[in-house]
Amino acid sequence: MVLSRNTVADAPDLVAAMTESLPHLRPWMPWATGENATVPAQVRRLGEVTASWDAGTDFVYLLRLLEGDASVVGVIGLHRRIGPGAIEIGYWTHAAHTGRGYMSAAAKAVTGAATVLADVDRVEIHTDVANVRSAAIPRKLGYRLERIDECPPDAPACAGQMQIWVWP
Ligand SMILES: CC(C)(COP(=O)(O)OP(=O)(O)OC[C@H]1O[C@@H](n2cnc3c(N)ncnc32)[C@H](O)[C@@H]1OP(=O)(O)O)[C@@H](O)C(=O)NCCC(=O)NCCS
Fold first, then answer.
1. DSSP-assigned letter for residue 1
2. What is the pLDDT of residues 58-109, one digit of tens each?
3. Does the chain have fewer CB atoms within 10 Å around its N or its C terminus?
4. What domain range is 45 assigned to?
5. Which residues lie below 8 Å from residue 39, measured CB to CB, with a gap of 6+?
6. How far apart are CA 29 and CA 24, in angstroms?
7. How many folded domains does the chain comprise?
8. pTM, two decimal places
9. Ligand 1 centroid vs 84 CA: distance in angstroms?
């Protein structure tokens, strides 16, 4: 697997992966809709992703297999949306590639990348208490469960309690 910067040129492959994964993403991700899984919508969004990377605020990576047809395995991003000195990791895996350790490996790599950013002294992963598959990742990597925040559910399977996992 290789992680590379997610660019506008990836839009068609990303849309294919999203479309194939919608039933698996919809319970947890509010943006997982048919309208968003289109090339024009993703070209627009990836334009914003590119601008955020250039501005040094957010860094979004596409995961592809190294062998075969370089299938899209998932997406992982570092987002500065949780206040000064901190950065949050978000991720999703293609429905056909789950349970093989891909996202655990990607989260480990991206955690390492985040910790060397000069202005970051705290990395967080937020997982709804009902999303046990997602929480398995920070737990396994050695993140500390700092607290559970009440937070209105924004997707159908969410319980509305957000586990805040912190590194280091
Ligand atoms: C959560 C998600 C990213 C996990 O991706 P993945 O590539 O399958 O993750 P990995 O294979 O690296 O690891 C998943 C871990 O969960 C464990 N797991 C799998 N099913 C599980 C279950 N039902 N209950 C508990 N743990 C489970 C796996 O065993 C693995 O741990 P292990 O390596 O110790 O065995 C993926 O399921 C997904 O995209 N879900 C929908 C979107 C989403 O929820 N994103 C995160 C929002 S916070």
1. -
2. 999 999 999 888 889 999 999 999 999 999 999 999 999 999 999 999 999 9
3. C
4. 2-167
5. 11, 12, 15
6. 9
7. 1
8. 0.95
9. 29
Give the C-alpha separation, 22 to 14, whole Å: 12
Write the residue with the smallest CA distance to atom 27 of ligand 1: 133
**CA 106 to ligand 1: nearest atom:** 12
Bridge partners of 52?
Answer: none
Q: How many helices (H) and strands (E) does the chain have?
A: 4, 7
Assign 168 a pLDDT band (cuts: 50, 70, 90).
Answer: confident
> Any idea what the CATH number is for the domain that residue 110 is in?
3.40.630.30
What's the gap in Å between 157 CA and the centre of ligand 1?
A: 15
Pairing of strands 86-93, 122-128: parallel
**H/E/C letters for each residue in 11-75?**
HHHHHHHHHHHHHHHCCCCCCCCCCCCCHHHHHHHHHHHHHHHHHCCCEEEEEECCCCCCCEEEE
In angstroms, how far is CA 136 from the centroid of its own chain? 14
Residue 140 CB neighbours (<10 A) = 12
- Asked whether 58 and 77 are in contact (CB, 8 A), the reply is yes
